[in-house]
Amino acid sequence: MTIEASLIIPMVLCVFVLLIYFSYYLYGRCMLSQDSYILAFRATKSRSFGFGDDMASFVSSKADEKAGKKYFGSSRPFFEPEISGKKITVKGGAEVRHRAMKRYFLMPESGFEYAALGKAKRWEYAEHIRKLTRIKDIGSEIIDLDTGDERWNTDTTGN
């Protein structure tokens, strides 16, 4: 084997290993972002799941079920809910930890950490629709008001 090959092959091998590590990172980050949003969205519908108005307990009870076993190559993710009125923000985080290449400059000792946010707002759709319908009714009543002024009267029969 030549000197060039003995230098190039380890570099190519390191590049492939780094691509695999970054793929774990990217995959975990995408899944965490998706799971954080799904937990936040479903927490706004917590009444449908039998949790009443307590969105935080919904997130804490369903987090392990939602995370499942799909975070391979990563630590178990954590999810923390923050509630502000009708809005909920679910913060999630995990880290990619591997033992390979720790002695080299390519892999930090602590591993790669990643975090994601999922935000949702609780909407009471029936209330919202009723409110919009009422505003529309009031608006049509205001437009149809007979002011008594002839220039606003659209009656062309002369009455």
Protein described:
By secondary structure, this protein is α+β, with helices and mostly antiparallel strands. It has one domain (3-143). The protein contains 3 helices and 3 strands. It has a 3-stranded antiparallel beta sheet with strand order 1-2-3. Helix 1 runs antiparallel to helix 2 (55-67). It is elongated and about 105 Å long. The termini are far apart. The mean pLDDT is 79.
Short account of what is shown:
With 159 residues, the protein is of the alpha+beta class. The chain is 47% helix and 17% strand.
Number of E-type strands: 3
- If you average the pLDDT, what whole number results? 79
Tally of separate domains: 1
Helix content: 40-55%
Provide a count of the helices.
3
| Classification by helices and strands | alpha+beta
- Strand fraction equals 15-25%
Largest sheet: 3 strands, antiparallel
Radius of gyration: 29 Å
Give the overall shape, derived from the CA principal axes: elongated
Q: Kindly, what is the distance between the CA atoms of the first and last residues, rounded to a whole number of angstroms?
A: 107 Å
Q: List low-pLDDT spans.
A: none
Strand order of the largest sheet: 1-2-3
Q: What is the H/E order?
A: HHEEEH
